[in-house]
Amino acid sequence: MPKVILVTTAGKVGSEAARLLTQRQVPVRVLVRDPENGKALADAGAEIVVGDLAVPESIDERCRVCPPSCL
């Protein structure tokens, strides 16, 4: 199963999507600016990577392993 990357998990919709996907055993990678913000999702089974959408070079490699998709 391909890994899903979520980049807006600080809010209600993104965090709930990440939680539901991990519950269904879907591999999830969560992009966060501050690793502390992803702690609960990491505890739920998500892989946490640090990056910032405003800094493209901080996300290029982190997103490369995931197939293109949009949520």
Query: What best-fitting shape do the alpha-carbon axes yield?
Result: globular
What share of the residues lie within helices? 25-40%
- Low-pLDDT residue spans: none
Characterize the main sheet. 3 strands, parallel
**Beta-strand residue percentage:** 15-25%
Q: Helical segment tally?
A: 3
Strand order of the largest sheet: 1-2-3
Structural class: alpha/beta
Order of helices and strands: EHEHEH
Kindly report the oligomeric state of this protein: single chain
Q: Average pLDDT value?
A: 80
What is the number of beta strands?
3
Radius of gyration: 11 Å
Instruction: Give the terminus-to-terminus CA distance.
Output: 17 Å
What does this protein structure show overall?
The longest helix has 12 residues. It is globular and about 30 Å long. 31% of the residues lie in helices and 17% in strands. It has 71 residues and is an alpha/beta fold. The protein has a three-stranded parallel sheet with strand order 1-2-3.
Please describe the structure with a list of short key phrases separated by commas or semicolons:
alpha/beta; about 70 residues; 3-stranded parallel sheet; 3 strands; 3 helices; about 15% strand
Please outline the helices and strands:
Layout: E1 4-6, H1 12-23, E2 28-32, H2 39-43, E3 47-50, H3 60-64
Parallel strand pairs: 1-2, 2-3
